[in-house]
Amino acid sequence: MRLKILFSVVAPILALVISGLSWAQCPDDPVDLGICDTLNVEAWARTDTCFGGDCAKPGYKINNPGSLFPCWLYVSLFVTHDSNTFWWEGGSRWVQDSIIGLVVPLAFWCQPTGPADSLMLPTYFNNKNLNSASSSFPRSMFRHMVDENGDTTYNRFVLMYEAGYDNWSINTATGSDADTISSLGDSGRAFLSAIITSGGSQRWYEGSKVLLATFTFKVTDSMHVDLDSTFWPPGANFSLTRYDAINYVPRDNMPNTIWVGSPRVEVTSPNGGEVWLVGETHNITWFSENFTGDSVKLEFSTDAGTNWMPIINKTPNDGVHPWLIPDSISTQCRVKVSDPVDGIPYDISDSNFTITREPDFTIDALPDTQWVKQGDSVKFEVILTSLYGFNSPCTLTVTGLPLLTTGRIDSSVITPTDTSILTIDTDSLTPIGVYPIIIKGTQKTKQVPHVEHSIQRWLIVVSALNFKPNLSVPESVLVYAGLTANFAVIATDPDTIDTLTITKQGVGEFNCPPRISPNVCHFWWPTEDADTLNSPYQVIFVVNDGRDSTDTGVVRITVRPYHIPPSVVEGDANGDGLVNIADIVFLISYLFGYGPPPNPPAAGDVNGDCFIGISDIAWLVNYLWVYGPPPQIRCLPGDVNYDGSVNLLDVYYFINYLLFNGPPPVSMRSTDVNADCFINVVDLVYEINYLMRGGPAPQPGCVAPRPAPAVSPAIVEMGLSNLKYNQKSRVTELPVYANFDVPVAGVALSVTWDPEKLSFMDPVLTPRTEGLGLYYNLKRDQLTIGMIDISGAHVIQPGTGPILTLRFVPEDRTKVDLRSIQIEKATFVNTKAQELLLKMAK
User: Fold this and answer.
1) C-alpha angle with apex 752: 746 to 755, nearest 5 degrees?
2) Domain count of the chain?
3) What is the pTM of this model?
4) Mean pLDDT, each 10-residue run in order, the chain (842 residues)
5) Which of 60, 67, 429, 478 is spaced 20 to 30 Å from 457 by Cα?
6) Do 468 and 498 touch, CB atoms closer than 8 A?
7) Mutual orientation of helices 614-625 and 581-592 as an angle, nearest 10°?
8) Which CATH number do you get for residue 522?
9) d(C-alpha 669, C-alpha 704), whole Å
C-alpha cells in the first residue's frame, strides 16, 4: 500500500523530468512557474506603417511609408505562456499551471510632428464582439478568432485556442466614443480583462506569442505612438491569474514606441557634447524605424557637417559600430548614419561633439635670453597653456643656474593657463658666462605617468664693470652727384643690458631710436650736383650707453661730378678706352655698390643679351683671364644708330637704311624691335609707334644670335633655411642655400624686408663661397648682393648647402615673420657666363 502511494506521488514528478519540464521559477515572480510569462505589445508585423482606407471593408491597402494620412495602425497583444504541473493545495490535487484570467490596463500617447496631429482610439473599431456572425465582428479586437462552425474567414492571425471563446467575459473601457490625443503630454487609456465564466475547462495553455487582441488606432500624420501599462482605478493593475486564483505580474516589452511614417534612422551616440580621445574606441549607436536595409554607411565631420569623411562604407544595420577615434582634432565633430545605397534615410548628430587628445599643457618663458650683471637680478615670465582640457596643478622648478645664484618663483604651483614670475638673483662673485637654464613644469597630482614639460632659456652673466660700447661705420664713401649715399651704422656693447643711443652730426638723414645691443640704423643722403663743391664731407656718429661711456665713428663722404666718359669700344664700361679689370670693378660698383652707370648704360651689356647683370661681369672675367670670347656688340632695343639712346635719330637712321641704301645698324638685335627675327618696315612702324604714339616698348630681337645660348640647361634650386639665433650677439642669422650640379662663377641677389620689423646687417660668406668676393649695397629696405672672383680663379663647386648668411636684428625676436623677407631676384651664372634656370623653393 505504501509503495502505491509513493508511486502515485513520484510518477508525476518523473513525468515532468522526462518531458523536459522543471520546477524552476520565473525570477521576477516566484508564483509564475517555469519560464517567465510575457505580454508583447507590437505593431502588426506585416507593415511598418498604416493601412490606408476603411479598415471595415476588405481590400484596403498597406500604406507606403508616410504616403497617405489619416491611416489605421494595428497594435496587437501577444501572450507567451508555458504550462507546468503543480500541486494545488486548495484543490488537493495536481493541476496544470495555466491562465484563467488576465487584466491589461494600457496607456497610450503620441509624439506628434505637427501642431494639428492627433492619435485616436475609436470605440467603433475596438469593440469586444466575439460572435463572427455579428456585423460588428470585423471591427472587434478579437476578429482573429474562428466562429462556432469553424469558419476561418476572419482568422487573419493565429488562434488563441481552438474553441470556447464565448466562455470568456471581455470588458473594454476607452472613455468616450474615442480617446483622442492631439498634443504631447496628453494620454488616453484602454482596459482589457478576461476570465473563464463557465465550465472551468477553458484555460490559456502553453504557447509562444499567442494573439490575444488587436487595437485599432487612427493616425493623422507621421508620429511616434507610445504604449505602456497603467493603473486603472479603483484597483486594476496589469496581472495574470493562475488556475488556483493566485495573481502574478508577467514580463512585458513596455513602454513601447512605434514609429508611423517614412523610414528613418536616428543617431543616439555621439549625439552632441561628448568628448572622445584620439586612440580610444567608442561605439557609434543608432536605431532605425521602418528602415529594413541590412546595412548602413557611417561618416564623420570635423566642421559641423560641411564636409564628410568615411568611417565605414557598409556595416550591418544592428545599431552599433565600434569606432577607433582618429587623430582629427576638432570641437565641431558630428556623425552621420545613412543608407549606403542612396543616402536616404539618414541622420546626423544633433549637435557637435569633440575629438581631442590626452589632456596636456605647454610651457613657455619670456624672454628667451636675459642678461644680468654680477650682483643684479633678472626676471622670466613663465606661462603654462592648457591643451585639450588640462587643468591639473603643476609644480615649477628651475635648474642649470650658475654658482652663487638662486631662483625664486613667486607661485611655484600653478594651473594652466596661469603665469608665474621666476626671479634670478646673482652674486657679485657669480662666474661670468653663458648659462642654459631649464624651467620645468610637472603635474602635481598622483597620476602616473606624470605630465612633465620643460623649456630651455639663456642666462648671460656679465661683469659688474661698465664696458665701452663700439660703433661700426665705413671709413669712407664715394658717391656720384645725383645718387644716394647709404650705409648701416651698427652699435654694440658687451653690456647688452645697456640702452644704446646713436646721434649724428653732419649731412644726411639718420633716424635711430635707442635700443639695447646691437642697435642697427641706416644713414642716407640723396646728393645733388651742388654737393660736389664742398666735397669731401665729414659725418660724425656718437654712441652713448647711458652710463657715460661713448664711442665715435667718422665717415668721409666724397661726392664726385656725375660724368662718365662715353664708351668707345665694347666691354669698355668706364669710358677710359680700355677693356681691363677696371671695367669689372666699375660694373661691380654700379650693380652692387653706389657707383654710376656706364655711358651709355648699354655699354655695360658685355655679353650682348640686352641686359646688364652678373653675367656681364662673368663674361669680362672669362675674356680677361680664362680665354673666353670677347665682349659682344651691346644691345639696347630701339637704338638703331648705336649711340646709346632711343629717339627720332634712330627713326631717320632706319629710314635711310631701308629706303636709301644707308649704312646697316651695328646691332641687329637692337633693330629687330618687334622680335620677329626679321628687320623690315614692320620694325620701322613699331619704332615710330613707340616714340610718337605711346606704343609698346622695343623688344630684344633675335637677328644675329649670340655665339652661345643665353641660358644654361642646368637648374639651381634655392631658398631660405631655418633661422639661427646667436644668444651672445643677439643677431638672428638666416642661411641662403642653393643646390646645383655645375660650377657657378657668380651670383647676384636682391633681398627686401620690412624695415619697421627688421634691421639688416652685413651678410657673410659660407665655406662654399669663401673664395669669392662679396659685394653689397645695404639700403634701408633692400640688400643688393654680388658674389664673384674677379680673378676667375675660384667658383662655387656643385653641391648643396648654404652659400650666404643673411644677418638681421628683429624688433621683436618672438614675432619674426619670414614672409617679410623676400628674395626679389636671383641670378646664377656658370663659368661660360650663361644663366642657370632658377627654381625657388618655399
Assistant:
1) 140
2) 5
3) 0.53
4) 33 36 67 86 66 52 61 85 78 76 85 80 77 73 60 34 34 46 68 63 69 84 87 79 84 88 89 91 91 90 94 94 93 95 92 89 89 91 86 89 92 78 94 93 72 91 86 92 91 86 96 91 92 94 90 95 89 92 92 89 92 93 89 94 93 90 92 92 91 91 65 86 81 93 94 88 93 87 91 92 92 77 91 89 74
5) 429
6) no
7) 170
8) 2.60.40.10
9) 7
